Amino acid sequence: MTDRQPNIVLILADNLGWGELGCYGGGVLRGAPTPRIDALAAEGLTCLNFNVESDCVPTRSALMTGRHPIRTGAMQSVPAGLPQGLIPWEITLGELLQGAGYATACFGKWHLGDREGRLPKDRGFDEWYGIPRTSNEAMFTAAPGFDPSIVPMPYVMEGVKGAPARELAVYDLEQRRLIDGELTRRTIDFMARQSGAGRPFFAYVPLTQLHFPTLPHPDFAGRTGAGDFADAMAEMDHRVGEVLDAIDRLGLRDDTLVLFGSDNGPEFRRPWRGTAGPWRGTYHTAMEGGLRVPFLLRWPGRIAPRRTTDVLHITDLYPTLAKLGDGALPADRPIDGIDQLGFLLGERPTSARDGFPSTSRPSCGPSNGATGRCTSCGRSSRTKARSSWRRRISSISCRIRRRRPTPTWRAAGCAARLGA
């Protein structure tokens, strides 16, 4: 370990597919070069087999608790106005690091509870700015017939530990364009304040890009010439660069672990459809493209620049970061994550994980009502019905992934291709 607790900056993109970034074969080919994120990859560990859950809520709960969502109950997104969020007795990563002396902050999309007692400020973060649920709510107020008496008005909010949260602005299409710029500014301010105070910090930065509606900040509109999606990806790359520049400017580069990843595979809705590169499927599925996502780590002098095909899972971040920050894991419940610090630091040659279970179905996404075909892969619902036995097998969590016979072999991919 180190003489002092390192700072931790965890940036989580939304619906960023495996094939979008330049360092994963996208970038220019997707209409938007990503030079800042590509440089981050070159300076650290590029994970080619990092896995998450099929949707943003289960992934975020797995990240925050180190437990599969079937344990926490956070299995899927819940519409506004209905009960949602982590069960109060879950202990979040923020709470672990807060208890170890870290200053903690969450800037961005939470999606693990939208009322007092379940907001980030109540779940281990000293301060918070962002949205309690998700970005497609920015389309609500512009929809014909929208009635705020039936569906709660979406807001951008802020809060601090021990005080009620405040509603700052209606989260509409204008705010959707502006929010990532503001949350980046607040992240940089937080890091500067904690650096000045000499206190280690955990900055959790769940960006809202590239979730639909994928609309760039006005400063980036038209930047790529390839449409809103590419412009938004260029903005995302720039925001990551702003955080990295601030870390350097504050003299924190060697004392800060930077992590960058995605909560799930790409969007399937047009015109915001993304790509998982060579992997089939999108988010909302347990296909390869829904679960395998980009993930990068940089810690100069501690994590050697390299690429790995070893299996890693989002739950692993919980015990790994807890150990790194001297946090004590709860001993009264199963923790599904595996401490991977030795592997990340190069102290052991392979991942400590051979595979992982999934409770998501390996079937495709929703069917188009007009064509009867899957919106993700195009297969007919009749073909999907013939593969129901595979869905039943997956539903009891016996789909296990193995460690790299070849970089491209995956149990989920094989299961999906059996009925292709």
Keywords:
single chain; alpha/beta; Alkaline Phosphatase, subunit A; eleven-stranded mixed β-sheet; 27% helix; globular
Could you describe the 3D structure shown?
There is one protein chain. Strand 5 and strand 6 (166-170) form a beta hairpin. Mean pLDDT is 87; it is low at 362-372 and 380-420. The longest helix is centred in the middle third of the chain and has 25 residues, at 173-197. With 420 residues, this protein is α/β, with parallel strands linked by helices. It has a single domain (7-344), classed as Alkaline Phosphatase, subunit A, CATH 3.40.720. Helix 5 runs parallel beside helix 6 (228-249). Strands 1, 2, 3, 4, 5, 6, 7, 8, 9, 10 and 11 form an 11-stranded mixed sheet that branches. It is 27% helix and 15% strand. It has helices at 35-42, 56-65, 69-72, 93-99, 173-197, 228-249, 288-291, 317-324, 341-344, 381-386, 388-395, 411-417, and strands at residues 7-13, 45-51, 103-109, 127-131, 155-160, 166-170, 201-206, 256-262, 292-298, 306-308, 312-313. It has 12 helices and 11 strands.
